[in-house]
Amino acid sequence: MKLKSLLTLLALSLPVFAIDDAPFQELKTYDFQNRKPVETINALIRGADMATQGEIETKLLAVAQDPATTFAAQQEIGKMLWKVGSGRSVPVLAKWLGDEKLNDVARYALEGNTDPAAAQALRGALATTKGKALAGVITSVGERRDSMAVPVLKGFLGNPDTAIANAAIAALGKIATPAAI
Q1: What pLDDT is attached to residue 18?
Q2: 10 Å Cβ neighbour count for 120?
Q3: To the nearest whole percent, how much of the chain has pLDDT over 90?
Q4: pLDDT higher than 90, residue 70
Q5: Nearest C-alpha neighbor of 151 from the set 122, 172, 124, 133
Q6: Which end of the chain is less congested by CB atoms within 10 angstroms, N or C?
Q7: How far is CA 128 from CA 85, 93, 95, 179, in A?
Q8: Are 52 and 19 in contact (CB under 8 A)?
Protein backbone atom coordinates (compact mmCIF):
# COMPACT_ATOMS: atom_id res chain seq x y z
CA MET A 1 0.00 0.00 0.00
CA LYS A 2 2.85 2.36 0.75
CA LEU A 3 4.33 1.86 -2.73
CA LYS A 4 1.01 2.64 -4.40
CA SER A 5 0.62 5.82 -2.32
CA LEU A 6 4.16 6.87 -3.13
CA LEU A 7 3.61 6.32 -6.87
CA THR A 8 0.35 8.28 -6.78
CA LEU A 9 2.03 11.14 -4.97
CA LEU A 10 4.90 11.11 -7.45
CA ALA A 11 2.53 11.11 -10.43
CA LEU A 12 0.59 14.05 -9.01
CA SER A 13 3.78 16.03 -8.43
CA LEU A 14 5.07 15.70 -11.99
CA PRO A 15 4.44 18.73 -14.17
CA VAL A 16 1.96 18.34 -16.98
CA PHE A 17 3.53 19.57 -20.19
CA ALA A 18 1.21 20.60 -22.98
CA ILE A 19 2.57 22.21 -26.08
CA ASP A 20 1.01 25.57 -26.82
CA ASP A 21 -0.56 25.66 -30.29
CA ALA A 22 0.01 29.41 -30.74
CA PRO A 23 3.55 29.32 -32.20
CA PHE A 24 2.49 26.65 -34.69
CA GLN A 25 -0.46 28.76 -35.81
CA GLU A 26 1.81 31.83 -36.08
CA LEU A 27 4.31 29.78 -38.11
CA LYS A 28 1.73 29.38 -40.91
CA THR A 29 2.15 33.04 -41.89
CA TYR A 30 5.93 33.26 -41.33
CA ASP A 31 7.51 35.48 -44.00
CA PHE A 32 11.24 35.49 -43.13
CA GLN A 33 10.66 38.50 -40.86
CA ASN A 34 9.35 37.84 -37.35
CA ARG A 35 11.27 34.75 -36.23
CA LYS A 36 9.47 34.45 -32.89
CA PRO A 37 7.39 31.37 -33.79
CA VAL A 38 10.41 29.70 -35.40
CA GLU A 39 12.61 30.32 -32.36
CA THR A 40 9.86 29.23 -29.95
CA ILE A 41 9.38 25.93 -31.75
CA ASN A 42 13.14 25.37 -32.07
CA ALA A 43 13.45 25.89 -28.30
CA LEU A 44 10.70 23.31 -27.76
CA ILE A 45 12.58 20.88 -29.99
CA ARG A 46 15.85 21.39 -28.11
CA GLY A 47 14.20 20.59 -24.78
CA ALA A 48 11.93 17.78 -25.98
CA ASP A 49 11.97 14.15 -24.97
CA MET A 50 10.90 11.49 -27.50
CA ALA A 51 7.18 11.74 -26.69
CA THR A 52 7.23 15.52 -26.95
CA GLN A 53 9.16 15.33 -30.23
CA GLY A 54 6.33 13.20 -31.60
CA GLU A 55 3.78 15.81 -30.56
CA ILE A 56 5.87 18.58 -32.13
CA GLU A 57 6.18 16.56 -35.34
CA THR A 58 2.39 16.10 -35.44
CA LYS A 59 1.83 19.84 -35.08
CA LEU A 60 4.47 20.65 -37.71
CA LEU A 61 2.91 18.22 -40.18
CA ALA A 62 -0.52 19.77 -39.67
CA VAL A 63 0.90 23.21 -40.45
CA ALA A 64 2.90 21.86 -43.42
CA GLN A 65 -0.24 20.43 -45.00
CA ASP A 66 -2.34 23.56 -44.53
CA PRO A 67 -2.72 25.25 -47.95
CA ALA A 68 -2.47 28.66 -46.26
CA THR A 69 1.06 27.94 -44.97
CA THR A 70 3.67 30.19 -46.57
CA PHE A 71 6.73 29.00 -48.47
CA ALA A 72 8.97 30.48 -45.77
CA ALA A 73 7.12 28.48 -43.12
CA GLN A 74 7.42 25.30 -45.17
CA GLN A 75 11.18 25.80 -45.38
CA GLU A 76 11.42 26.22 -41.62
CA ILE A 77 9.20 23.19 -41.06
CA GLY A 78 11.51 21.13 -43.26
CA LYS A 79 14.50 22.23 -41.17
CA MET A 80 12.64 21.32 -37.97
CA LEU A 81 11.75 17.92 -39.39
CA TRP A 82 15.49 17.24 -39.82
CA LYS A 83 15.50 17.07 -36.02
CA VAL A 84 12.13 15.53 -35.08
CA GLY A 85 10.98 13.83 -38.28
CA SER A 86 10.00 10.18 -38.21
CA GLY A 87 8.31 7.92 -40.71
CA ARG A 88 5.18 10.03 -40.30
CA SER A 89 6.97 12.95 -41.97
CA VAL A 90 7.96 11.02 -45.07
CA PRO A 91 4.75 11.46 -47.13
CA VAL A 92 4.81 15.25 -46.72
CA LEU A 93 8.53 15.50 -47.44
CA ALA A 94 8.23 13.14 -50.42
CA LYS A 95 5.69 15.50 -52.02
CA TRP A 96 8.16 18.34 -51.62
CA LEU A 97 10.90 16.49 -53.56
CA GLY A 98 9.30 17.47 -56.85
CA ASP A 99 9.10 21.15 -55.89
CA GLU A 100 12.26 22.98 -56.94
CA LYS A 101 11.87 25.46 -54.07
CA LEU A 102 11.35 22.81 -51.36
CA ASN A 103 13.46 20.00 -52.81
CA ASP A 104 16.61 20.82 -50.83
CA VAL A 105 14.95 21.06 -47.43
CA ALA A 106 12.93 17.89 -48.07
CA ARG A 107 16.03 15.98 -49.15
CA TYR A 108 18.03 17.01 -46.11
CA ALA A 109 15.21 15.99 -43.79
CA LEU A 110 14.89 12.63 -45.54
CA GLU A 111 18.66 12.04 -45.56
CA GLY A 112 18.73 12.05 -41.77
CA ASN A 113 15.46 10.21 -41.25
CA THR A 114 16.21 6.63 -40.20
CA ASP A 115 12.82 5.25 -41.18
CA PRO A 116 13.08 2.90 -44.21
CA ALA A 117 10.25 4.87 -45.84
CA ALA A 118 12.64 7.83 -46.21
CA ALA A 119 14.99 5.77 -48.38
CA GLN A 120 12.00 4.50 -50.39
CA ALA A 121 10.78 8.06 -50.95
CA LEU A 122 14.16 9.14 -52.27
CA ARG A 123 14.42 6.07 -54.52
CA GLY A 124 10.91 6.79 -55.82
CA ALA A 125 11.87 10.38 -56.59
CA LEU A 126 14.66 9.13 -58.87
CA ALA A 127 11.91 8.32 -61.38
CA THR A 128 9.80 11.44 -60.91
CA THR A 129 12.17 14.41 -60.55
CA LYS A 130 14.08 16.20 -63.28
CA GLY A 131 17.05 18.53 -63.66
CA LYS A 132 18.55 20.12 -60.57
CA ALA A 133 16.00 18.43 -58.30
CA LEU A 134 16.99 15.01 -59.68
CA ALA A 135 20.70 15.73 -59.19
CA GLY A 136 19.90 16.62 -55.59
CA VAL A 137 17.89 13.45 -55.01
CA ILE A 138 20.75 11.39 -56.45
CA THR A 139 23.13 13.13 -54.05
CA SER A 140 20.83 12.35 -51.11
CA VAL A 141 20.61 8.70 -52.10
CA GLY A 142 24.40 8.64 -52.06
CA GLU A 143 24.52 10.33 -48.66
CA ARG A 144 22.25 7.61 -47.30
CA ARG A 145 24.50 5.02 -48.96
CA ASP A 146 21.41 3.30 -50.28
CA SER A 147 22.67 0.17 -52.01
CA MET A 148 19.16 -0.67 -53.21
CA ALA A 149 19.35 2.33 -55.55
CA VAL A 150 22.52 1.15 -57.34
CA PRO A 151 20.80 -0.24 -60.47
CA VAL A 152 18.85 2.98 -60.99
CA LEU A 153 21.89 5.15 -60.29
CA LYS A 154 23.92 3.26 -62.90
CA GLY A 155 21.29 4.25 -65.45
CA PHE A 156 22.17 7.92 -64.89
CA LEU A 157 25.88 7.51 -65.68
CA GLY A 158 25.41 8.30 -69.37
CA ASN A 159 22.92 11.13 -68.81
CA PRO A 160 23.56 14.09 -71.11
CA ASP A 161 23.04 16.45 -68.15
CA THR A 162 26.52 16.41 -66.63
CA ALA A 163 25.19 17.48 -63.21
CA ILE A 164 23.04 14.34 -63.10
CA ALA A 165 25.80 12.06 -64.39
CA ASN A 166 28.33 13.52 -61.94
CA ALA A 167 25.87 13.17 -59.05
CA ALA A 168 25.37 9.51 -59.98
CA ILE A 169 29.14 8.90 -60.07
CA ALA A 170 29.56 10.53 -56.65
CA ALA A 171 26.59 8.64 -55.18
CA LEU A 172 27.88 5.30 -56.43
CA GLY A 173 31.29 6.14 -54.98
CA LYS A 174 29.74 6.85 -51.57
CA ILE A 175 27.68 3.67 -51.65
CA ALA A 176 30.89 1.80 -52.53
CA THR A 177 29.46 -1.71 -52.60
CA PRO A 178 30.90 -4.13 -55.17
CA ALA A 179 27.80 -3.61 -57.32
CA ALA A 180 28.22 0.18 -57.09
CA ILE A 181 31.88 0.06 -58.03
Answers
A1: 72
A2: 15
A3: 88
A4: yes
A5: 172
A6: N
A7: 23, 14, 11, 24
A8: yes
Angle between helices 36-46 and 71-84 (to 10 degrees): 10
Cα–Cα dist 75/92, whole Å: 12
- Give the chain's mean pLDDT: 91
| pLDDT tens for each residue of 109-132 | 999 999 999 999 999 999 999 999
